[in-house]
Write a structure and sequence with these properties.
Elements lengths: L1 H4 L6 E9 L2 E10 L8 H40 L3 E5 L5 E4 L1 H7 L3 H4 L10 H17 L3 E8 L6 E12 L5 E10 L1 H23 L3 E5 L5 E4 L1 H7 L3 H6 L9 H16 L5 E8 L5 E12 L5 E9 L1 H15 L9 H18 L3 E9 L1 H8 L1 H18 L5 E6 L2 E7 L4 H16 L2 E3 L2 E3 L2 E9 L7 H17 L4 E4 L2 H22 L3 E10 L5 E12 L3 E3 L5 H4 L3 H23 L6 E4 L2 H4 L4 H11 L8 E6 H6 L1 H13 L3 E7 L6 H6 L4 E4 L1 H6 L4 H16 L3 E5 L4 H10 L3 E3 L9 H10 L4 H4 L9 H21 L15 H13 L6 H24 L5 H23 L1
Parallel strand pairs: 18-19, 21-23, 23-24, 24-25, 25-26, 26-27, 27-28
Antiparallel strand pairs: 1-2, 3-4, 3-7, 5-6, 6-7, 8-9, 8-12, 10-11, 11-12, 13-15, 13-18, 14-15, 16-17, 20-21, 20-28, 21-22
Helix pairs in contact: 12-13, 13-14, 16-18, 29-30, 29-32, 31-32
Length: 875
């Protein structure tokens, strides 16, 4: 310091240190420059006082600096905080605010200070703010409330939590209100969403179609839903207050509940499931499917969530479905599924015990008629009654099952011998054949039974055994029904051969081994070729050309008949197209199988084939269906015929006369043509019954305006007789055999009608008895020859007055032909023939006839002469 003071020529100096705490901040003093001076006590006191003043000023400046620093820090902090912060005086005038608050008002702090809420927001909102300010000041403590405020900066709204605190100075005087608003929009929305979810979850749990609860490992209920409470009749309060929930249930439920809890708690993953029967408030025991899962919350507390689904109805439905799956709903008998199981068990038992069993395949006779006459409801009642009867007939260990329709199967184990089974079979036949009375209806059917036996050493399985019994049942049907038939192994071999034949035929169709032959149909009087019939032939790789009789019966009723039928129809139409291109315009008839007609797309398929060959005229296509096939489903066949007629294709009834047709059926079937069955045509020359049938059919055809064609015209005589009867169109070997399409053209050019046919005319109805007389004579002659050849046990009538021809001569002959020059001669020759026959028969009886064949020739000469005269009489 001397170095500082001496250059200033200071003579005297009085100084004191300026202390701030224990730290020296500097010095202050009095000095004398011009002369030395001695400082007095007053000077020293004054300097000391001055020093104190200087120290205080310095300290105050430091504190102000420190305070400014703190104030700057605090202001920076306040402006940085995301909360809205402001300070108002008691009159609501803003003294300060932070940057976040500026966004609320959309103004800077310096524009806000000195103003009130009324300068920035609506009066309603300003009143609200002022009310809360006053509330805070009056309460003298922090007041918290929640508000939704709009921000002037961009218009968005925020939900804020507002804390307002009254501020006081050191003297306790109220300075104003400090406000802090924190944005709680997201947390509020989240809380609201959680609350909504909680409410929704509670509603879901309470209305869930199952019981839901949560317990501690000790069985204390923490939650239970309304569904479970309502179902059990135990209130939520009772559940929550119970020490262990099992205390609220019957004792027989307790062990299962505790056990299932332990099982659930022992699992690391997954759930434990069980079933439990529990009494419900409705008074019934309900079967519950219980699922329990171990849970652990955030605090590692363990509990159990339980779910209870009422499966009582489901179990009933399941049992019902199981019943439906295994039992017939009409009769209550086991169905096909349960039968298979019972039969398999019976076979295993028979194998173990070295015993035998019988399988009976039973089909009711006449049941379809019952359904048709009395209706299906009564038919079902009949089945139910018969099922009970059959079940009562059998032993306890036997099984009777219904396969469907009117088919049943009985399994009879432990059959010791054939006689035992026959007794059972006869009982079944009796049970099925007795009348059934339902209300005022009397119904009666019978049964055809097929029986197959199984011995322990047999290798057949259940399916084979059923098939054997089924085959035997069909044999019982064929033999006349209302009987039983025992399976024959040789017959089974024949059936297997049949299956092999089916496979061979199917292969032949695929490899196109079939061809079509065509047999002409002609007018036997005019010679006109009216059409051809397409007939299928099989060019067998080993057996050569096979006729239909060699393979068609094998596929009757089989789907192969449809497959082959489609091929025949398409091939015939293709040939018609080729003929059309060769200027051959001829009608072609095609045989259609019954199964083929049952195809839903038969007509649409026919239309499609015809559309492929537009040259073919639909009117030139005729479809032949067996009369018996048509009658099996007359409604369907009638509709098919009508649909075909609409596109120009007509139908013929083939083999007409074999189906026991009634006038009603003939009237309903819109068939254009009737084909006389060849069996009647073939035998009409010597069988009066066949002639009468043909005469009746021709009469029906005339009455119903149907064309006729005769099949089986094998001789000139057949043609003559048909022409006499008024049937002019024929088909048969005497006209032409079936031939290939290539040969048909040349045959058509060479064909000429026989002159004998051309000269024959149809007889009048009053002359028909003469035709009958001629045929009856030939039948008489045939019987004579048969007797002499030991083919008949007795001769025909030998009296010329009592035979059919003799009776005709005495009645119709004398009435209509007495004046004919041949009539007297006919009478004489007829008498001579009978006289000769009588003598020959007498010698035959005596054993003195040396040469029966020569005797037959003698009689034949007389017969031929008589027949020729009768024919001339007809002409």
């Amino acid at each position: 310091m001397r170095e500082i003071l001496l250059p200033q020529e200071i003579q005297s100096l009085l100084t004191i240190s300026l202390m701030q705490g224990k730290v020296c901040q500097g010095f202050v003093g009095f000095d004398a420059v011009k002369h030395k001076r001695s400082f007095s006590k007053e000077d020293r006191e004054l300097l000391k006082l001055f020093g104190i003043l200087l120290s205080n000023v310095n300290e105050r400046k430091d504190k102000e600096k420190e305070l400014n620093t703190e104030r700057s820090f605090l202001k920076t902090l306040i402006h940085t905080l995301p909360d809205l912060i402001w300070f108002k005086d008691p009159q609501g005038v803003y003294l300060a605010c932070n940057t976040r608050f500026e966004e609320f008002f959309g103004a800077k702090e310096h524009d806000i200070i000195g103003k009130t809420d009324y300068d920035f927001v609506t009066k309603e909102l300003a009143d609200f703010f002022r009310k809360n300010d006053i509330n805070a000041m009056q309460s003298e403590k922090a007041v918290i409330n929640q508000e939704e405020i709009p921000f002037a900066s961009d218009g968005h709204k925020e939900i804020v939590q507002v804390t307002k605190v009254p501020m006081y100075d050191a003297s306790g005087k109220l300075m104003g209100v400090l406000g802090v608003s924190r944005d709680i929009t997201q947390s509020t929305l989240t809380a609201n969403a959680l609350q909504s979810e909680r409410i929704m979850l509670q509603a879901i749990l309470d209305n869930a179609p199952m019981g839901i609860w949560m317990t501690t490992p000790e069985g204390k209920v923490k939650f239970v839903n309304k569904t479970f409470c309502d179902a059990t009749g135990v209130s939520e309060e009772q559940f929550l207050n119970a020490e262990h929930y099992v205390d609220l249930f019957p004792i027989d439920v307790t062990q299962n509940c505790i056990h299932s809890d332990k099982q659930a708690l022992s699992l690391e993953f997954g759930a434990y499931s069980t079933t439990q029967t529990l009494p419900f408030v409705d008074g019934n025991n309900h079967l519950l499917e219980i699922t329990k899962v171990k849970i652990q919350d955030a605090q590692a507390k363990i509990g159990i969530i339980g779910l209870a689904m009422d499966i009582t109805e489901r179990q009933k439905q399941q049992r019902h479905l199981e019943y439906i799956a295994h039992y017939d709903m009409i009769t209550g008998l086991p169905n096909r599924v349960l039968l298979a199981d019972r039969l398999q068990q019976a076979l295993l038992q028979a194998g173990r015990h070295k015993s035998s069993l019988a399988v009976v395949y039973l089909d009711l006779d006449g049941f379809k008629a019952v359904n048709d006459i009395y209706g299906h409801d009564n038919g079902d009642k009949l089945l139910s009654v018969l099922a009970k009867r059959m079940k009562q007939t059998l032993r306890d260990g036997d099984t009777i099952a219904r396969l469907g329709g009117d088919e049943f199967v009985a399994v009879l184990p432990d059959m010791k011998n054939l006689q035992d089974s026959i007794v059972m079979l006869e009982r079944l036949l009796y049970a099925c054949s007795q009348e059934v009375f339902i209300d005022d209806i009397h119904m009666q059917v019978s049964a055809s039974l097929g029986v197959a036996f199984f011995e322990s050493e047999d290798s057949v399985d259940a399916e084979q055994l059923l098939r054997q019994a089924d085959q035997a049942m069909y044999q019982a049907k064929i033999l006349g029904k209302n009987r039983y038939y025992i399976f024959d192994a040789l017959q089974d071999k024949s059936i297997r051969t049949h299956h092999e034949s089916l496979e061979e035929i199917e292969k032949a169709i695929e490899e196109e081994e079939f061809v079509l032959y065509y047999q002409p149909k002609v007018n036997m009087k005019s010679g006109e070729i009216v059409g051809v019939e397409a007939l299928v032939r099989w060019i067998h790789p080993e057996k050569g050309l096979l006729a239909p009789a060699a393979f068609l019966p094998l596929i009757a009723g089989h789907e192969l008949s449809v497959k082959l039928g489609k091929w025949v129809l398409k091939s015939a139409i293709q040939q018609m197209d080729r003929w059309k291109k060769e200027a051959i315009d001829i009608q072609v008839s095609v045989n259609v199988d019954a199964l083929q007609l049952q195809e839903k797309d038969f007509i649409s398929g026919l239309k499609y084939i015809l559309s492929i060959y537009p040259l073919v005229e639909n009117k030139n296509l005729s479809l032949e269906v067996l009369e018996t096939s048509a009658l099996n489903d007359i409604v369907h066949v009638t509709q098919i015929m009508k649909d075909a007629h609409e596109i120009g294709v007509h139908f013929s009834l083939d083999d007409f006369g074999t189906g026991y047709s009634s006038l009603t059926y003939l009237r309903r079937l819109p068939a254009k043509e009737l084909k006389l069955d060849q069996s009647f045509v073939r035998d009409m020359l010597d069988d009066p019954d066949d002639l009468a049938i043909l005469d009746g059919i021709l009469g029906l055809a005339t009455a119903f305006d149907r064309h006729t064609i005769a099949e089986g015209v094998e001789s000139i005589e057949h043609g003559e007789m048909l022409l006499h009867m008024g049937c002019e169109v024929g088909q048969g070997y005497i006209i032409a055999r079936p031939m290939s399409a290539e040969l048909l053209s040349s045959w058509m050019q060479e064909w000429k009608v026989d002159e004998r046919w051309a000269n024959v005319s149809a007889v009048n109805r009053e002359d028909m008895p003469l035709l009958y007389a001629l045929v009856e004579h030939k039948a008489w002659m045939k019987n004579i020859i048969g007797y002499l050849n030991n083919e008949r046990v007795s001769p025909p009538i030998l009296s010329h007055l009592k035979c059919h021809l003799g009776i005709w001569i005495q009645k119709n002959g004398y009435k209509h032909y007495i004046n004919h020059p041949l009539f007297e001669q006919i009478e004489i020759v007829h008498a001579q023939l009978h006289e000769k026959a009588d003598g020959i028969i007498m010698k035959f009886h005596e054993g003195s006839l040396s040469d029966s064949q020569n005797a037959i020739k003698t009689l034949q000469k007389y017969s031929d002469t008589l027949s020729e005269m009768l024919k001339k009489l007809i002409k």
